[in-house]
Amino acid sequence: MTTTQSDPSLRATVLTAPATFSTTPAESPRPGVGDVLVRVAETGLCGSDVTMYLGRHPVNRPPLTLGHEFHGELLSAGEGTSARPGDAVAVFPALSCGECASCRRGATNLCPDMGIIGAQRPGALAGVVTVPAASVLPIDPATPPGLRVLIEPLAVALHAVNRAGPVAGRRCAVLGAGAIGTLVALVLRHRGAEAVHRIDTDGHKLSLVDTGIARHGDGRPLAEVLGGEHGELDVVLDCVGSAELAGQSLGAVRPGGTVVLVGVQHGAFSLDGVALQRGERAVLGVQLYVLADFTEAMRLLAGEPLFSGLPESLIRRNAVGDVAEVFDRLARGVSTHLKETIVFAGKENPC
Questions:
Q1: CA–CA distance, 218 with 290 (Å, rounded to integer)
Q2: Is there a single domain that holds both residue 168 and residue 241?
Q3: Separation between Cα atoms, residue 348 and residue 351, nearest integer Å
Q4: Do the Cβ atoms of 14 and 22 come closer than 8 Å?
Q5: Which parts of the chain fold into alpha helices (H)?
């Protein structure tokens, strides 16, 4: 059991209700059995954070201490981790029981009791967090400090592409040019996809990273955007989470093709059963990632130029005191950067 002690300098930022944050004095956590203590350096904010912020997430609702894409400094170590106090660490935020059938076969992301640090447990906006010892992974010093916050979203992208199966030589489309969509496109390119079409209504975001062929959708139906490619794609990865796009995507893949739903879906939607069945097309869901995806993301950011060479200017860093403003910007869709983050060491670049 975790015990606490008073620390007047420690403050936690909590989402107390939809679109409402409260910053209050917090108790300084002491790690209990099996836990360690991490001082957060930076946390990224993503689409699922925004759905929780708006109170629209299908599972996680306020009150919440958000922040699951984070790295920091290990303050105390215990059994179950190779990290040592003072190490720079990334935190694998997924929680699972370790005993169910899914966990036993390595599919911890499918655990019935699956949770996440930043929802079921307090996340990075607490500033200092207790996490399971097995969840902290030492960061390779070769990893550019300014890109370490991309470890978790890159793990999402890797798991999404893994769900699609082998992509070398295949024709693919990625819907959405946010952080996940862009990283998915980079993973496809890294793994030898023949063509990668990127589609988004935001031409600026499409221009931020050169990942191959980019097409600006302008909100038109997918078939119209793809033109001659309609029905000839092998894989479409929907990183938006739109019910309408899910249906359009099915018609955009050839017989035998695959649609991968990466973005958070918000309920029921309809698909063309004839196209699904008679074309033997597949529609696959994506739920987070597993540890192997996370460690591969760490490896790629430490040594693969396609990833480790990404410009840090893609990331807008913000002070923790500006968290409400940042979430409002993300909720309104007016961020001009690939990734918005919160930093805890005074190294923000709000420009």
A1: 35
A2: yes
A3: 9
A4: yes
A5: 47-53, 101-104, 151-164, 179-190, 203-208, 222-226, 243-252, 273-278, 291-303, 305-308, 323-331
CA distance 301 to 130: 25
Q: Which pair of structure tokens corresponds to residue 85?
A: 């106090």
Tally the domains of the chain.
2
Q: What is the DSSP letter of 117?
A: B
Which residue type is seen at 33? V
- The alpha carbon of 338 is separated from its chain's Cα centroid by a whole number of angstroms, namely 12
- 236-272 pLDDT, tens per residue? 999 998 888 888 899 889 999 999 999 877 778 888 8
**What is the number of other CB atoms lying within 10 angstroms of the CB of residue 51?**
18
Residue 42 has φ and ψ, to the nearest 5°, of -160, 145
d(C-alpha 184, C-alpha 176), whole Å: 10
Tokens matching residue 255? 């017989």
pLDDT digits (tens, 9 = 90+) for 213-235: 566 666 677 767 777 666 889 99
- 158 is in which domain, residue-wise? 154-285
Q: What is the SS3 assignment for 77?
A: coil
- pTM for the model stands at 0.92
Task: Give yes or no: residues 276 and 334 share one domain.
Answer: no
Q: What is the CATH number of the domain that holds 256?
A: 3.40.50.720
- Residue 146, both tokens: 């300014």
By C-alpha distance, which of 307, 317, 289 is closest to 142?
Answer: 307
The whole-angstrom separation of Cα 22 and Cα 42 is: 19
Residue 145: inside a domain:
no
